[in-house]
Specification:
It is a single chain. The two termini are 23 Å apart. Helix 4 packs parallel to helix 6 and helix 9 packs across helix 19. Helix content is 47%, strand content 16%. The chain is built from 22 helices and 12 strands. By secondary structure, the chain is α/β, with parallel strands linked by helices. It has 3 domains: 162 residues, Rossmann fold (3-Layer(aba) Sandwich), CATH 3.40.50.300; 132 residues, Winged helix-like DNA-binding domain superfamily/Winged helix DNA-binding domain (Arc Repressor Mutant, subunit A), CATH 1.10.10.10; 100 residues, Trna Endonuclease, Chain: A, domain 1, CATH 3.40.1350. The strands form 3 sheets. The protein has a 5-stranded parallel sheet with strand order 2-3-4-1-5, with helices on both faces. It has a 5-stranded mixed sheet with strand order 8-9-10-11-12, sandwiched between helices. A two-stranded antiparallel sheet has the order 6-7.
Protein backbone atom coordinates (compact mmCIF):
# COMPACT_ATOMS: atom_id res chain seq x y z
CA UNK A 1 0.00 0.00 0.00
CA UNK A 2 1.37 3.41 -1.01
CA UNK A 3 1.08 6.08 1.70
CA UNK A 4 1.56 9.85 1.57
CA UNK A 5 3.30 12.03 -1.04
CA UNK A 6 -0.04 13.47 -2.21
CA UNK A 7 1.50 16.84 -3.16
CA UNK A 8 4.39 15.25 -5.05
CA UNK A 9 2.07 12.89 -6.93
CA UNK A 10 -0.25 15.76 -7.81
CA UNK A 11 2.70 17.70 -9.21
CA UNK A 12 3.92 14.74 -11.25
CA UNK A 13 0.41 14.09 -12.59
CA UNK A 14 0.04 17.74 -13.58
CA UNK A 15 3.35 17.69 -15.44
CA UNK A 16 2.47 14.42 -17.14
CA UNK A 17 -0.86 15.85 -18.29
CA UNK A 18 0.85 18.76 -20.06
CA UNK A 19 1.75 16.35 -22.90
CA UNK A 20 4.90 18.35 -23.67
CA UNK A 21 8.53 17.95 -22.69
CA UNK A 22 9.00 17.98 -18.92
CA UNK A 23 12.20 17.53 -16.94
CA UNK A 24 11.87 16.72 -13.23
CA UNK A 25 14.84 16.64 -10.85
CA UNK A 26 14.03 14.53 -7.79
CA UNK A 27 16.41 14.03 -4.89
CA UNK A 28 16.50 13.19 -1.22
CA UNK A 29 18.22 11.07 1.38
CA UNK A 30 18.46 7.33 1.04
CA UNK A 31 15.44 5.35 2.28
CA UNK A 32 13.15 8.39 2.00
CA UNK A 33 10.92 6.79 -0.65
CA UNK A 34 12.04 8.23 -3.98
CA UNK A 35 11.95 4.91 -5.83
CA UNK A 36 8.55 4.04 -4.34
CA UNK A 37 7.18 7.40 -5.50
CA UNK A 38 8.48 6.94 -9.05
CA UNK A 39 7.21 3.35 -9.21
CA UNK A 40 3.76 4.40 -8.05
CA UNK A 41 3.65 7.31 -10.47
CA UNK A 42 4.59 5.33 -13.60
CA UNK A 43 2.07 2.56 -12.98
CA UNK A 44 -0.16 2.13 -16.05
CA UNK A 45 1.89 4.67 -18.01
CA UNK A 46 4.23 4.29 -20.97
CA UNK A 47 7.44 4.38 -18.98
CA UNK A 48 11.06 3.27 -19.07
CA UNK A 49 12.59 2.85 -15.64
CA UNK A 50 16.36 2.59 -15.34
CA UNK A 51 18.38 2.50 -12.14
CA UNK A 52 22.08 3.36 -12.17
CA UNK A 53 24.57 1.14 -10.40
CA UNK A 54 27.91 1.97 -8.81
CA UNK A 55 29.92 0.52 -11.69
CA UNK A 56 31.64 1.69 -14.86
CA UNK A 57 30.09 3.55 -17.76
CA UNK A 58 29.71 0.51 -20.01
CA UNK A 59 27.79 -1.47 -17.40
CA UNK A 60 25.29 1.34 -16.94
CA UNK A 61 24.97 1.84 -20.71
CA UNK A 62 24.26 -1.87 -21.13
CA UNK A 63 21.62 -1.71 -18.39
CA UNK A 64 20.00 1.36 -19.94
CA UNK A 65 19.96 -0.37 -23.34
CA UNK A 66 18.28 -3.43 -21.81
CA UNK A 67 15.58 -1.22 -20.27
CA UNK A 68 14.94 0.46 -23.62
CA UNK A 69 14.76 -2.78 -25.62
CA UNK A 70 12.51 -4.36 -23.01
CA UNK A 71 10.12 -1.42 -23.31
CA UNK A 72 10.05 -1.57 -27.12
CA UNK A 73 9.98 -5.35 -27.63
CA UNK A 74 8.60 -6.50 -24.26
CA UNK A 75 11.50 -8.95 -24.10
CA UNK A 76 15.04 -9.00 -22.75
CA UNK A 77 17.85 -8.38 -25.26
CA UNK A 78 21.64 -8.65 -25.09
CA UNK A 79 22.02 -5.82 -27.59
CA UNK A 80 23.43 -2.51 -26.48
CA UNK A 81 23.66 1.00 -27.85
CA UNK A 82 27.18 2.15 -28.61
CA UNK A 83 26.85 5.48 -26.80
CA UNK A 84 24.60 7.25 -24.31
CA UNK A 85 23.80 9.81 -26.99
CA UNK A 86 22.47 7.10 -29.31
CA UNK A 87 20.42 5.51 -26.54
CA UNK A 88 18.92 8.74 -25.27
CA UNK A 89 18.27 10.14 -28.74
CA UNK A 90 16.30 6.97 -29.44
CA UNK A 91 14.15 7.72 -26.38
CA UNK A 92 13.54 11.33 -27.44
CA UNK A 93 12.49 10.11 -30.88
CA UNK A 94 10.12 7.53 -29.41
CA UNK A 95 8.51 10.33 -27.43
CA UNK A 96 7.76 12.36 -30.56
CA UNK A 97 4.82 10.05 -31.24
CA UNK A 98 3.51 9.30 -27.73
CA UNK A 99 3.71 10.46 -24.12
CA UNK A 100 6.63 8.63 -22.56
CA UNK A 101 8.30 8.74 -19.16
CA UNK A 102 12.02 8.03 -18.77
CA UNK A 103 12.96 7.71 -15.10
CA UNK A 104 16.67 7.47 -14.35
CA UNK A 105 17.05 6.44 -10.72
CA UNK A 106 20.39 6.93 -8.93
CA UNK A 107 21.50 9.27 -11.70
CA UNK A 108 24.74 10.25 -9.87
CA UNK A 109 26.10 6.70 -10.26
CA UNK A 110 25.63 6.93 -14.02
CA UNK A 111 26.89 10.50 -14.40
CA UNK A 112 30.01 10.00 -12.31
CA UNK A 113 31.04 7.10 -14.52
CA UNK A 114 30.09 8.86 -17.78
CA UNK A 115 31.53 12.36 -17.43
CA UNK A 116 29.92 13.70 -20.62
CA UNK A 117 26.40 12.45 -19.84
CA UNK A 118 25.11 15.78 -18.51
CA UNK A 119 26.36 17.61 -21.60
CA UNK A 120 24.79 14.95 -23.83
CA UNK A 121 21.45 15.40 -22.08
CA UNK A 122 21.78 19.17 -22.44
CA UNK A 123 22.35 18.78 -26.18
CA UNK A 124 19.39 16.45 -26.67
CA UNK A 125 17.01 18.47 -24.51
CA UNK A 126 17.80 21.61 -26.50
CA UNK A 127 17.34 19.69 -29.76
CA UNK A 128 14.07 17.91 -28.98
CA UNK A 129 12.27 19.88 -26.21
CA UNK A 130 9.91 21.65 -28.63
CA UNK A 131 8.75 18.49 -30.42
CA UNK A 132 9.15 15.73 -27.83
CA UNK A 133 6.52 14.48 -25.39
CA UNK A 134 9.15 12.99 -23.13
CA UNK A 135 8.83 13.35 -19.37
CA UNK A 136 12.36 12.92 -18.05
CA UNK A 137 12.91 12.23 -14.35
CA UNK A 138 16.45 12.30 -12.96
CA UNK A 139 16.54 10.99 -9.40
CA UNK A 140 19.41 10.77 -6.94
CA UNK A 141 20.23 10.02 -3.31
CA UNK A 142 23.45 12.04 -3.29
CA UNK A 143 21.94 15.40 -2.45
CA UNK A 144 25.22 17.28 -2.79
CA UNK A 145 25.76 15.84 -6.28
CA UNK A 146 22.22 16.66 -7.43
CA UNK A 147 22.47 20.20 -6.10
CA UNK A 148 26.00 20.87 -7.39
CA UNK A 149 25.95 19.02 -10.73
CA UNK A 150 22.30 19.15 -11.81
CA UNK A 151 20.63 22.14 -10.17
CA UNK A 152 23.56 24.55 -9.78
CA UNK A 153 24.01 27.56 -12.05
CA UNK A 154 27.26 26.23 -13.56
CA UNK A 155 25.87 22.74 -14.21
CA UNK A 156 25.24 21.79 -17.89
CA UNK A 157 21.58 21.00 -17.13
CA UNK A 158 20.89 24.30 -15.38
CA UNK A 159 17.81 26.01 -16.76
CA UNK A 160 16.44 22.89 -18.46
CA UNK A 161 14.38 21.47 -15.60
CA UNK A 162 10.68 22.25 -15.42
CA UNK A 163 10.30 21.05 -11.81
CA UNK A 164 12.38 19.92 -8.87
CA UNK A 165 11.46 17.90 -5.80
CA UNK A 166 13.47 17.47 -2.65
CA UNK A 167 11.83 14.57 -0.84
CA UNK A 168 11.90 14.88 2.94
CA UNK A 169 10.93 12.35 5.60
CA UNK A 170 7.23 12.22 6.48
CA UNK A 171 5.83 14.50 9.13
CA UNK A 172 4.02 13.12 12.16
CA UNK A 173 0.59 13.14 10.50
CA UNK A 174 1.73 11.04 7.54
CA UNK A 175 3.72 8.74 9.83
CA UNK A 176 0.53 7.94 11.75
CA UNK A 177 -1.05 6.61 8.54
CA UNK A 178 1.36 3.68 8.62
CA UNK A 179 0.08 2.47 11.99
CA UNK A 180 -3.71 2.25 12.31
CA UNK A 181 -3.44 -0.30 15.15
CA UNK A 182 -1.08 1.65 17.42
CA UNK A 183 -2.52 3.63 20.32
CA UNK A 184 -2.17 7.39 20.01
CA UNK A 185 0.73 7.44 22.47
CA UNK A 186 2.51 4.65 20.59
CA UNK A 187 2.21 6.66 17.37
CA UNK A 188 4.22 9.44 18.97
CA UNK A 189 6.75 6.95 20.33
CA UNK A 190 7.27 5.25 16.97
CA UNK A 191 7.74 8.68 15.36
CA UNK A 192 10.30 9.41 18.04
CA UNK A 193 12.32 6.26 17.45
CA UNK A 194 11.96 5.75 13.68
CA UNK A 195 11.29 9.27 12.43
CA UNK A 196 9.46 9.79 9.17
CA UNK A 197 11.70 7.81 6.82
CA UNK A 198 9.47 5.25 5.06
CA UNK A 199 12.06 2.47 4.96
CA UNK A 200 12.48 2.68 8.73
CA UNK A 201 8.76 2.85 9.37
CA UNK A 202 8.28 -0.36 7.40
CA UNK A 203 10.44 -2.15 9.98
CA UNK A 204 7.87 -1.38 12.68
CA UNK A 205 4.85 -3.58 13.39
CA UNK A 206 1.76 -1.97 14.91
CA UNK A 207 0.50 -5.37 16.03
CA UNK A 208 3.29 -5.42 18.62
CA UNK A 209 4.09 -3.15 21.54
CA UNK A 210 6.66 -0.36 21.23
CA UNK A 211 8.85 -2.35 23.61
CA UNK A 212 8.80 -5.37 21.31
CA UNK A 213 9.40 -3.19 18.26
CA UNK A 214 12.49 -1.66 19.85
CA UNK A 215 13.73 -5.10 20.88
CA UNK A 216 13.13 -6.59 17.42
CA UNK A 217 14.92 -3.79 15.57
CA UNK A 218 17.36 -1.61 17.50
CA UNK A 219 18.24 -4.26 20.08
CA UNK A 220 18.54 -7.13 17.61
CA UNK A 221 22.02 -7.57 16.01
CA UNK A 222 20.45 -9.31 12.98
CA UNK A 223 18.02 -6.42 12.27
CA UNK A 224 18.68 -4.04 9.38
CA UNK A 225 18.22 -1.07 11.73
CA UNK A 226 20.82 -2.26 14.21
CA UNK A 227 23.72 -0.97 12.09
CA UNK A 228 21.75 1.33 9.77
CA UNK A 229 23.27 4.71 10.82
CA UNK A 230 26.83 3.46 10.46
CA UNK A 231 26.07 1.73 7.17
CA UNK A 232 24.39 4.82 5.75
CA UNK A 233 27.40 6.97 6.69
CA UNK A 234 29.70 4.50 4.92
CA UNK A 235 27.63 4.96 1.76
CA UNK A 236 27.52 8.75 1.95
CA UNK A 237 30.93 9.90 3.24
CA UNK A 238 34.59 9.05 2.85
CA UNK A 239 35.62 9.04 6.50
CA UNK A 240 32.67 7.59 8.42
CA UNK A 241 34.66 7.16 11.64
CA UNK A 242 35.00 10.89 12.30
CA UNK A 243 31.42 11.59 11.22
CA UNK A 244 30.32 8.86 13.59
CA UNK A 245 32.34 10.43 16.42
CA UNK A 246 30.79 13.86 15.77
CA UNK A 247 27.20 12.56 15.77
CA UNK A 248 27.96 10.55 18.92
CA UNK A 249 29.28 13.71 20.60
CA UNK A 250 26.13 15.64 19.70
CA UNK A 251 23.91 12.80 20.94
CA UNK A 252 25.86 12.86 24.19
CA UNK A 253 25.06 16.53 24.80
CA UNK A 254 27.90 18.36 23.04
CA UNK A 255 25.92 20.92 21.08
CA UNK A 256 28.29 23.86 20.55
CA UNK A 257 31.16 23.81 18.07
CA UNK A 258 33.77 24.11 20.82
CA UNK A 259 32.19 21.26 22.80
CA UNK A 260 32.06 18.99 19.76
CA UNK A 261 35.66 19.79 18.87
CA UNK A 262 36.85 18.97 22.39
CA UNK A 263 34.81 15.77 22.53
CA UNK A 264 36.14 14.32 19.26
CA UNK A 265 39.67 15.69 19.68
CA UNK A 266 39.78 17.57 16.37
CA UNK A 267 40.29 21.29 15.61
CA UNK A 268 37.14 23.36 15.10
CA UNK A 269 37.97 24.05 11.43
CA UNK A 270 38.04 20.29 10.76
CA UNK A 271 34.79 19.73 12.66
CA UNK A 272 33.14 22.63 10.80
CA UNK A 273 33.73 20.95 7.43
CA UNK A 274 32.29 17.65 8.65
CA UNK A 275 29.32 19.36 10.28
CA UNK A 276 28.59 21.15 7.00
CA UNK A 277 28.34 17.80 5.21
CA UNK A 278 26.07 16.37 7.91
CA UNK A 279 23.84 19.43 7.56
CA UNK A 280 23.61 18.85 3.80
CA UNK A 281 22.69 15.21 4.42
CA UNK A 282 19.84 16.33 6.67
CA UNK A 283 21.12 14.31 9.62
CA UNK A 284 21.82 17.30 11.87
CA UNK A 285 20.54 20.86 12.06
CA UNK A 286 22.03 24.10 13.28
CA UNK A 287 19.80 26.06 15.60
CA UNK A 288 20.05 29.65 16.78
CA UNK A 289 17.81 31.30 19.41
CA UNK A 290 14.71 32.56 17.60
CA UNK A 291 15.10 36.04 16.22
CA UNK A 292 18.87 36.14 16.66
CA UNK A 293 21.67 35.93 14.12
CA UNK A 294 24.06 32.93 14.11
CA UNK A 295 26.60 33.35 16.88
CA UNK A 296 28.40 31.43 19.57
CA UNK A 297 24.97 30.68 21.00
CA UNK A 298 24.17 28.54 17.94
CA UNK A 299 23.98 24.83 18.62
CA UNK A 300 23.92 21.59 16.63
CA UNK A 301 21.24 18.94 17.06
CA UNK A 302 20.51 15.60 15.43
CA UNK A 303 17.47 16.27 13.23
CA UNK A 304 16.58 12.72 12.17
CA UNK A 305 14.69 10.93 14.95
CA UNK A 306 15.98 7.47 14.10
CA UNK A 307 19.59 8.68 14.21
CA UNK A 308 18.91 10.59 17.43
CA UNK A 309 17.41 7.52 19.09
CA UNK A 310 20.14 5.20 17.81
CA UNK A 311 23.06 7.38 18.88
CA UNK A 312 21.41 8.19 22.20
CA UNK A 313 20.91 4.57 23.28
CA UNK A 314 22.53 1.93 21.08
CA UNK A 315 26.31 2.56 21.33
CA UNK A 316 26.18 2.63 25.14
CA UNK A 317 24.39 -0.70 25.18
CA UNK A 318 26.22 -2.36 22.26
CA UNK A 319 28.04 -4.93 24.43
CA UNK A 320 24.80 -6.03 26.09
CA UNK A 321 22.94 -6.14 22.77
CA UNK A 322 25.65 -8.18 21.03
CA UNK A 323 25.23 -10.83 23.76
CA UNK A 324 21.53 -11.17 23.00
CA UNK A 325 20.36 -9.47 26.20
CA UNK A 326 17.63 -7.35 24.59
CA UNK A 327 15.51 -7.29 27.76
CA UNK A 328 18.41 -5.93 29.81
CA UNK A 329 19.20 -3.30 27.17
CA UNK A 330 15.56 -2.21 27.03
CA UNK A 331 15.39 -1.99 30.83
CA UNK A 332 18.26 0.50 30.65
CA UNK A 333 16.59 2.55 27.90
CA UNK A 334 12.99 2.64 29.19
CA UNK A 335 13.52 5.05 32.15
CA UNK A 336 14.91 7.68 29.77
CA UNK A 337 12.18 7.52 27.14
CA UNK A 338 9.96 10.24 28.61
CA UNK A 339 12.87 12.70 28.70
CA UNK A 340 13.92 11.66 25.21
CA UNK A 341 10.42 12.31 23.87
CA UNK A 342 10.45 15.94 25.03
CA UNK A 343 12.12 17.26 21.87
CA UNK A 344 10.04 14.93 19.71
CA UNK A 345 6.83 16.32 21.22
CA UNK A 346 8.04 19.88 20.59
CA UNK A 347 8.43 19.05 16.91
CA UNK A 348 4.98 17.45 16.77
CA UNK A 349 3.51 20.61 18.35
CA UNK A 350 5.27 22.84 15.82
CA UNK A 351 3.84 20.77 12.98
CA UNK A 352 0.38 21.18 14.53
CA UNK A 353 0.78 24.96 14.63
CA UNK A 354 1.90 24.99 11.00
CA UNK A 355 -1.22 23.06 10.04
CA UNK A 356 -3.37 25.62 11.87
CA UNK A 357 -1.67 28.40 9.92
CA UNK A 358 -2.00 26.64 6.56
CA UNK A 359 -5.70 25.97 7.19
CA UNK A 360 -6.41 29.56 8.22
CA UNK A 361 -7.04 28.67 11.85
CA UNK A 362 -4.07 30.35 13.57
CA UNK A 363 -4.71 33.60 15.48
CA UNK A 364 -1.10 34.61 14.74
CA UNK A 365 0.10 34.72 11.13
CA UNK A 366 3.66 33.78 12.03
CA UNK A 367 6.46 33.70 9.46
CA UNK A 368 8.44 30.94 11.15
CA UNK A 369 8.62 28.94 14.37
CA UNK A 370 11.63 28.37 16.55
CA UNK A 371 13.01 27.90 20.03
CA UNK A 372 14.63 30.55 22.18
CA UNK A 373 17.12 30.34 24.99
CA UNK A 374 19.11 32.97 26.83
CA UNK A 375 19.65 34.75 30.14
CA UNK A 376 16.82 36.20 32.17
CA UNK A 377 18.27 39.59 33.25
CA UNK A 378 16.18 39.63 36.42
CA UNK A 379 17.61 36.53 38.12
CA UNK A 380 20.61 35.98 35.79
CA UNK A 381 19.47 32.43 35.03
CA UNK A 382 19.38 30.59 31.73
CA UNK A 383 15.82 30.13 30.52
CA UNK A 384 14.22 28.54 27.48
CA UNK A 385 11.00 28.96 25.51
CA UNK A 386 9.92 25.91 23.51
CA UNK A 387 8.14 27.73 20.67
CA UNK A 388 8.06 31.32 19.43
CA UNK A 389 6.45 32.56 16.23
CA UNK A 390 6.41 36.22 15.23
CA UNK A 391 3.83 37.82 12.97
CA UNK A 392 5.31 41.33 13.15
CA UNK A 393 6.95 43.62 15.69
CA UNK A 394 3.70 43.79 17.65
CA UNK A 395 2.30 40.25 17.52
CA UNK A 396 3.67 36.79 18.37
CA UNK A 397 2.78 33.43 19.86
CA UNK A 398 4.61 31.63 22.66
CA UNK A 399 4.32 27.93 23.33
CA UNK A 400 5.35 25.41 25.97
CA UNK A 401 5.28 21.64 25.47
CA UNK A 402 5.15 19.02 28.25
CA UNK A 403 5.42 15.28 27.55
CA UNK A 404 4.74 13.99 31.06
CA UNK A 405 2.12 11.80 32.68
CA UNK A 406 1.23 14.62 35.07
CA UNK A 407 -1.30 17.25 34.14
CA UNK A 408 0.15 20.67 33.36
CA UNK A 409 -0.42 23.07 36.25
CA UNK A 410 -0.97 26.82 36.31
CA UNK A 411 2.69 27.39 37.20
CA UNK A 412 3.76 26.39 33.69
CA UNK A 413 1.44 28.99 32.17
CA UNK A 414 2.63 31.68 34.60
CA UNK A 415 6.26 30.90 33.80
CA UNK A 416 5.61 31.12 30.06
CA UNK A 417 3.79 34.42 30.59
CA UNK A 418 6.73 35.80 32.58
CA UNK A 419 9.30 34.72 30.01
CA UNK A 420 7.30 36.27 27.17
CA UNK A 421 7.89 39.64 28.87
CA UNK A 422 11.58 39.32 27.96
CA UNK A 423 10.33 40.39 24.53
CA UNK A 424 8.36 43.50 23.59
CA UNK A 425 5.29 42.21 21.78
CA UNK A 426 1.99 43.96 22.52
CA UNK A 427 -0.30 41.22 21.21
CA UNK A 428 0.54 37.73 22.47
CA UNK A 429 -1.14 34.37 22.08
CA UNK A 430 -0.07 31.54 24.39
CA UNK A 431 -0.20 27.84 23.56
CA UNK A 432 0.24 25.14 26.18
CA UNK A 433 0.67 21.59 24.87
CA UNK A 434 0.26 18.65 27.25
CA UNK A 435 0.54 14.91 26.87
CA UNK A 436 -2.18 14.15 29.40
CA UNK A 437 -4.11 17.37 30.03
CA UNK A 438 -4.33 20.34 32.38
CA UNK A 439 -5.25 20.93 36.01
CA UNK A 440 -8.41 22.77 36.94
CA UNK A 441 -6.34 25.74 38.09
CA UNK A 442 -4.55 25.94 34.76
CA UNK A 443 -7.83 25.85 32.86
CA UNK A 444 -9.29 28.58 35.04
CA UNK A 445 -6.26 30.83 34.56
CA UNK A 446 -6.33 30.25 30.79
CA UNK A 447 -10.02 31.19 30.67
CA UNK A 448 -9.35 34.39 32.63
CA UNK A 449 -6.49 35.47 30.34
CA UNK A 450 -8.53 34.89 27.14
CA UNK A 451 -5.38 34.67 24.97
CA UNK A 452 -4.42 31.12 25.91
CA UNK A 453 -5.06 27.94 23.95
CA UNK A 454 -4.72 24.62 25.77
CA UNK A 455 -3.96 21.69 23.49
CA UNK A 456 -3.70 18.06 24.55
CA UNK A 457 -1.82 15.44 22.58
CA UNK A 458 -5.17 13.80 21.80
CA UNK A 459 -6.30 17.06 20.21
CA UNK A 460 -3.27 16.96 17.90
CA UNK A 461 -3.74 13.35 16.85
CA UNK A 462 -7.44 13.77 16.18
CA UNK A 463 -7.12 17.08 14.31
Amino acid sequence: MFIGREKELATLDRLYASDKFEFVVMYGRRRVGKTALISHFIQNKNAIYFVGVESNSQQNLDNLSSSLFEYVTCSVSDSSFRTYQAALEYVFQLAEKERLVLAVDEYPYVARAAKSLASTLQLLIDKYKDKSKLMLILCGSSMSYMEDHVLAYKAPLYGRRTAQMKLLPFDFADTCKYFPHFSNEDKALVYGIAGGTPQYLLQMDDRLSIKDNIKNTFLNPTSSLYEEPENLLKQEVREPALYNAIITAIAGGASKMSEISTKVGEPTNICAAYLKNLLELGLIQKETPYGEKPSRKSIYMISDNMFRFWYRFIPDNASVISRGAADLAYARIAPHMSGYMGNVFEEICKQYLWQLLLHGQSPVQFKDLGRWWGTDPTDKKQVEIDIIGEQDKETALFGECKWTNEKVDVGILETLQARSKLFHYQNIQYYLFAKTGFTKGCRQKAAEMENVTLVTYEDIVES
